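[User] Could I get a sequence and structure tokens?

[Assistant]
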Amino acid sequence: MRLMTVKCLKNLELDTLCKDTELDNFLDKVTKTYKQDVEYHNDLHGADVMQHCYYMLTTCGMRKTIGIDKLDCLSLIIAACCHDLGHDGFSNAYHVNAVTSRAIDSNDGAVQETFHAAELFRILAQDSYNFL
């Protein structure tokens, strides 16, 4: 995932917005935070979604069509790569019905999505991973 993300960022000229060492640390942490034993929502899925967003930005011309700037593109690429960060393989309904800590933390609303976003911000809150 790291190599693919770095390549996308360089091709979109977004690497100038990032601190190199922290970006490498961040991408390694993201890869390790995805659970390898989860069949679908793993790091390969995150990389696949990120690659599709890159394709839409470049080949499909989405960047020009909707007029987004570099920061918007960077946000899209990072959001795509992290959108299922730490997914445990269970559905939102499962978490709500089982009264898990994820469900409680999200007040039963968008349980997994809330967790993924929180995980991303927990990682970025650490200086060694904050590439921005």
About this structure: The two ends are 19 Å apart (CA to CA). The CA atoms of residues 10 and 19 lie 13 Å apart. DSSP finds eight helices and no strands in the chain. The mean pLDDT is 96.
